[in-house]
From TrEMBL:
This is histidine kinase. It comes from the Bacteria. It catalyses: ATP + protein L-histidine = ADP + protein N-phospho-L-histidine. InterPro entries: HATPase_C_sf, HATPase_dom, Sensor_HK_TwoCompSys, Sig_transdc_His_kin_sub3_dim/P. One of its GO terms (cellular component) is membrane. GO terms for molecular function: ATP binding; phosphorelay sensor kinase activity; protein dimerization activity. CDD domains: HATPase_UhpB-NarQ-NarX-like (cd16917). It is an enzyme of class 2 (transferase). Residues 207-272 form the Signal transduction histidine kinase subgroup 3 dimerisation and phosphoacceptor domain.
Length: 409
């Protein structure tokens, strides 16, 4: 799986509201979310743009107004631009105040547009609508209170209203995009949680399946114990040779039963299934499985170097059988028409290795829902048996599965 960057290293690229929602940003004074680097860049850019618009208005004010009025406009415009640093904390109050100030101070027009953008980004549509209407009304009144001799009255009114509408629409577009990002993030978190639940469910079902199979093995061992112990109980006068033979069988059966039981400790058996109807495959029946899939039209190349499959422990043989069975099933579903190679190696004391490979499919492969759950169960089975299993795509585009299981000497 490809390693991704740590989330805390990317928070400077996110707005503070997304960082706060993700739970990766510390709080500033009085519990407020601290500004990220991105927030500082945005706030500085908006401040400079508002100051630029204010300077344009101040230039006109100097030409066509008295010196005291022009100086007052410049001071008010500078204060209005500085007040924009409060737009994240009080967007509505700041927009209303600046709209009222802009009626008599055209240098605050840039700050008004910036505050309207903040309101459109952070507040609901109804609040944005009446604040936008207030700013439009203030823009119309400003044309008559502080007219610009270089621009026609109708043009000035239309220009002010168009700018207000454009800034408001831009802010609402940003708000919609943020809401979409938050919705996608929540959906991704839910999908991740659901995938984790499916993984846990598949793991639990795999353990229950292993417990059901081991139940049959333990039942067989305990039956042998019961039979030979009963013979010793009802034939106390049996010859020493028979007593020794029965005791040896009891000892071997108890040892094997404890070994099987150790593999499934802590795994619960699901009720409602009868074990008598389920055959117990072993490594000796692996050839039969291969012949069955060949008769179904699948090409399988078997390279089996285990000369004495009957000497392999029953639990290990069943695990190998299930691994091969699932691997052939996956190859038939995800790579139909390809040739599957099955390699089996091992000896006593060294363990048993099984490898299944198939090349990339030549044609389109339909999507199969629930894929990957069987491999989770196989990995759990191999781990409980004291072994390990690895699987994944090959560099050529195919798929390979390799498992190792212990084979006591």
């Amino acid at each position: 799986m490809t390693r991704t960057a740590r989330p805390e290293r990317l928070t400077w690229l996110l707005p503070s509201h997304l960082v706060e929602a993700a739970g990766t940003e510390t709080s500033g004074p009085r519990g407020r979310p601290r500004r990220t680097v991105r927030d500082w860049i945005v706030d500085t850019t908006i401040f400079l743009l508002a100051a630029f618009v204010g300077l344009l208005a101040a230039e006109t004010s100097v030409k066509y107004s008295s010196e005291p009025v022009a100086l007052t406009d410049q001071i008010v415009g500078g204060l209005a631009c500085c007040a924009l640093w409060l737009r994240r904390r009080w967007p509505t109050g700041l927009a209303v105040t600046l709209s009222a100030v802009s009626v008599v101070a055209p240098t605050a027009s840039g700050a008004v547009l910036a505050s309207l953008f903040s309101v459109a980004v952070r507040r609901p549509f109804r609040e944005v609508a009446w604040i936008g209407a207030l700013a439009a009304a203030a823009s119309v009144v400003q044309v008559f209170v502080r007219p610009d001799p270089t621009i026609n009255v109708v043009v000035a009114i239309c220009l002010g209203i168009v700018l207000i509408l454009l800034v408001t629409a831009w802010g609402m577009l940003v708000r919609s995009r943020r809401q979409l990002v938050e919705a996608l993030r929540d959906r991704a978190l839910r999908a991740e949680a659901e995938a984790e639940l499916r993984f846990e469910q598949a793991q639990r079902l795999a353990r229950e399946a292993i417990a059901r199979e081991m139940h049959d093995v333990l039942a067989h061992r305990l039956t042998l114990l019961s039979v030979h112990a009963g013979a010793l109980e009802f034939r106390p006068d049996a010859p020493p040779e028979q007593v020794a033979r029965a005791a040896g069988v009891i000892r071997d059966s108890a040892h094997e039963a404890l070994q099987d039981l150790r593999e499934i400790i802590g795994v619960l058996r699901a009720p409602g299934e009868e074990a008598a109807d389920r055959p117990q495959p072993t490594l000796a029946t692996l050839d039969t499985l291969v012949e069955e899939v060949r008769e179904a039209g699948m090409r399988v190349v078997l390279d089996n170097a285990v000369t004495d499959p009957g000497s392999v422990p029953a639990s290990t043989g069943r695990t190998v059988y299930r691994i091969v069975q699932e691997a052939l099933t996956n190859a038939r579903k995800h790579a139909p028409g390809t040739e599957v190679t099955l390699i089996l190696r091992g000896r006593r004391g060294e363990g048993l290795t099984v490898e299944v490979r198939n090349p990339a499919p030549t044609g389109p492969v339909p999507a199969v829902p629930g894929s990957g759950q069987g491999l989770i169960g196989l990995t759990e089975r191999a781990t409980l048996a004291g072994g390990r299993m690895e699987h994944g795509p090959t560099p050529e585009g195919g798929f390979a599965l390799r498992a190792w299981l212990p084979w006591p000497a």
